[in-house]
Design brief:
By secondary structure, the chain is of the alpha/beta class. It has 2 domains: 133 residues, no CATH class; 337 residues, no CATH class. It contains 4 helices and 33 strands. Strands 5, 7, 8, 10, 11, 15, 16, 22, 24, 26, 28, 30, 31 and 32 form a 14-stranded mixed sheet that branches. Strands 21-18-17-23-25-27-29 form a 7-stranded mixed sheet, with no helix packed on it. The longest helix is centred in the first third of the chain and has 64 residues. 43% of the residues are buried.
Length: 475
């Protein structure tokens, strides 16, 4: 009996261990099988992504050869199912293309391409890529400057910063800072006394690993707007305002005030009179003098206008003042092509802000883009501001003469600045009236707007003649 009990115990133990082993083996087999299935699934998904990417590359090639063809040469609307073959002629899978052109003022501004890839050996798997094909524009930069520049220690710059000249960077830049020069001469106007030969980018700013020089120039002639063409388009499809100023004296400083209302309309005033203030001009055309004409003293209402939803182009053949809330994509142009030798300016009188993700402003001035003498103490500017022939900035006002205009608080900019000449929104070196600077804004922040880079307002100047994918995502 004792022996029988022992044999029974051994058998029971064997059965228990056998069951445990079988369970572990089954679980391990399931795990291995599951992992194998996962790898197969992952491989199929990766293959689907590669096929979808091939579809995008195919249509980029197609558009390079047939720029206006959004129907794959078929003459009929898509989607288009296309086989993707390997070098030996075997079918790897298929991609399905959907192509949509975005238009403004009757012209294609960008093309959205959706490509769905399906591998031949696993038709139940698919991946979709969506890309936007367009010319890259100045909206990819926080600053583009055609001359040398000094970014002060108070500056905070979020976005690429480029100068065709030299850069003294004492501020904090959190993106690439690039100069087209390997060396340049820093003079007293850039804080060097005596003059020094310095690197293309130099200074005491942080993140110096982001500095790069020399880099290729950005061709200002190539990115210049064709004012005659823009005038014709605005006359036909957008809004056009003829010259109001006249002559070469006080009347030459008149123009229009545009107040955007945040509802797709803009209220326009005729600027009848402006003050003449004693200042240091940002454009460097002269020294101290009675040369500032940014302060409006008399205006009359012209009317409130609907901004055409299919052509957000406004052209004024005169000086302009701008403020308000932008609710859609708008390009506002100040340029005179009717009178030889007359160059117009744009003045940022008040805050300019967006009220929706689809908002956007590109402001192009034939000469300067100036921040007004009576600008807000704390100012917000959303937009792409282009001083095609002049400078972006704020004239310098003596604090003892104009205590309400000289020293301001914070200037926060969200977008891009393009300036043919040196920029500046803060002045130092003369009367400070107890402050650390003479005139302008104490704190200045700049952040480039990625949404404008991928979807800018119409006729925003391009930085390349070649179209490319400006956005890419997996659905």
């Amino acid at each position: 009996m004792h022996i029988k009990k022992t044999s029974g115990s051994i058998m029971l133990i064997a059965l228990i261990f056998g069951a445990i082993f079988l369970g572990v083996f089954t679980a391990l087999s399931g795990f291995v099988l599951s992992g194998n299935n996962f790898e197969i699934q992952k491989q199929a998904q990766n293959e689907a992504v590669s096929i979808a990417e091939a579809g995008l590359e195919y249509y980029r090639w197609h558009l390079a050869h047939f720029p206006n063809d959004l129907q794959d040469g078929t003459g009929i609307p898509g989607p288009y199912l296309i086989s993707y073959k390997d070098p030996t002629g075997g079918t790897v899978g298929t991609y399905t293309l959907s192509i949509n052109g975005n238009k403004s003022c009757g012209q294609i501004t960008s093309i959205d391409i959706s490509s769905k890839g399906v591998p031949a050996d696993d038709p139940n798997v698919s991946e979709t890529l969506i890309a936007r094909y367009a010319r890259p524009t100045v909206a990819q930069y926080s600053y583009v400057i055609n001359g040398s520049v000094w970014a002060g220690s108070d500056r905070i710059i979020n976005g690429p910063y480029h100068s065709n000249g030299g850069i003294r960077m004492d501020g904090t830049a959190n993106a690439p800072v690039t100069s087209s020069l390997s060396k340049w001469t820093c003079t007293s106007s850039f804080g060097c006394n005596p003059n020094q030969t310095v690197n293309g980018v130099f200074g005491s700013g942080g993140n110096q690993n982001l500095w790069k020089y020399p880099t290729p120039q950005i061709d200002f002639a190539a990115i210049s707007a064709n004012f005659s063409s823009l005038k014709s388009i605005a006359n036909a499809q957008g809004l056009y305002f003829s010259r109001y100023s006249s002559g070469g004296g006080k009347l030459s400083h008149r123009g229009y005030l545009f107040v955007f209302n945040g509802d797709g309309t803009v209220t326009v005033y005729k600027v009848k009179k402006v003050a003449t203030l004693y200042s240091v001009p940002i454009d460097g055309s002269s020294g101290f003098g009675w040369n500032d004409h940014t302060l409006i003293t008399k205006k009359i209402l012209l009317g409130t206008y609907d901004i055409p939803s299919n052509c957000g182009l406004i052209y004024a053949e005169d000086n302009i003042w701008v403020e308000g809330i932008i609710s859609r994509k708008v390009t506002l142009v100040s340029a005179n092509v009717a009178n030889v030798g007359v160059k117009t300016n744009a003045v940022l009188e008040g805050n300019i802000t967006y009220n929706s993700p689809n908002s956007g402003l590109t402001l192009i001035a034939q000469n300067d883009v100036l921040v007004a003498a009576n600008s807000p103490y704390d100012m917000t500017l959303d937009g792409i501001f282009i001083a095609q022939g002049g400078a972006f900035g704020r004239n310098g006002y003596f604090c003892w003469r104009y205590p309400n205009y000289s020293q301001k608080g914070t200037l926060a900019m969200f977008g891009s600045v393009v300036s043919n000449k040196r920029t500046g929104t803060q002045w130092g070196g003369w009367y400070t009236c107890g402050n650390t600077f003479s005139s302008g804004y104490a704190i200045r922040t700049n952040s480039f707007d990625r949404s404008q880079f991928t979807n800018p307002p119409p006729f925003t100047p391009g930085t390349s003649a070649n179209y490319q994918f400006v956005s890419w995502r997996q659905k």
